[in-house]
Amino acid sequence: MNISSARQYFYQEIQQPDECIDLARAALYIAQEEYPDLDPEEYINSLDTMATELEERLPAERYPLRIIQAINQYLYSDLGFAGNKQEYYDPRNSYLNDVIDRRLGIPITLAVIYLEIARRIDFAMVGIGMPGHFLIRPDISDIEIFVDTFNKGEILFPQDCQEKLTQIYQHPVTLQPEFLAAVTNKQILARILTNLKYIYLNKQELEKALAAVERILLLFPGFALEVRDRGLLCYQLGRFSQAANDLETYLVKTPEAQDAYMIRRLLTQLGRG
C-alpha cells in the first residue's frame, strides 16, 4: 500500500453522505499513510469482535445508563483501554490501529472506538466537539448525559461539562449551547487530522504536517485557514509555486485577515506581490 492509494481510499470514503461514512474505516485510511502495510480489515474485524463480546454482556433491560455502564466495564475494565495521560502528544494516540493495539488513546480516538462499538450493538451515540475535550452522548433527544471516553467512560451532566471547561482553560468559561452540539463524521475526522497536524508541526516534521492539512482540505475544501497553512508549509518545503497559489487564494477569501500584511510580504518575496 502506498501513500497515494491510502489517500485515494480516504477520499472515496468521505465522498459519501456524512451519515454513510464508515468512521473507523476512514480513520484507518488516515493511519495507512503512516503504516503502509496496515490492513484496515484486520481492525474492522477487531471492532466487530469487541461488539460481539459486548453483546453477550449487555443487561436484559437496555436502559441507556445500563448500556453505557456495560460498555465502560468491557472497554476499560475487561480490555484495559485508557487515556494516555503520560504521553498525550504521542502521534500513535491519533492512529486508530495503534489505539486498538496499545489500548491507549486520546479523547477523539477513544471516542471513535466507543462510537463504533455502540453503533454495532444498535445503541446510537454522537460525538460532541466540546472545546479542548471531545465527548460523546447517546443520540436521544431528552437525555442530557455525556460520556468522557478519556476518563474511563465517566458520565457527565452539563454542569460537569462546565466545570471541565473551567479546568481546561484555568478560568471560568460560560458553557454555550454550541459547545455541546453534535458533530458530523467529517468533523471528527478533521479533529483527528488537526491533532496530527499540530503534533507534527511541533516536531518539525513538515511533510507529515502537510499531509494532515491536505486531508483536512479533502474534507472541507474551502477552509481558508487550512489553505493558508498548506501554503506556508509548501513555502517552508521549497514548493514555491504551490505556496504562492495557496497564499493568494487565502487573501482572496479573507482580505481583512489579521495576518494579511505578513502574507502579502511573503507573496512579494515569491514574486507575486
Automatic annotation (TrEMBL):
PANTHER family on file: F-BOX ONLY PROTEIN 21, SI:DKEY-261L7.2
Name by which UniProt lists this protein: Protein SirB1 N-terminal domain-containing protein
Transmembrane segments annotated in the record for this chain: none
InterPro entries documented for this protein: SirB1_N (IPR032698), TPR-like_helical_dom_sf (IPR011990)
Family designation: Belongs to the UPF0162 family.
A Pfam family reported for this protein in Swiss-Prot or TrEMBL: Transglut_core2
Domain Protein SirB1 N-terminal: 42-193
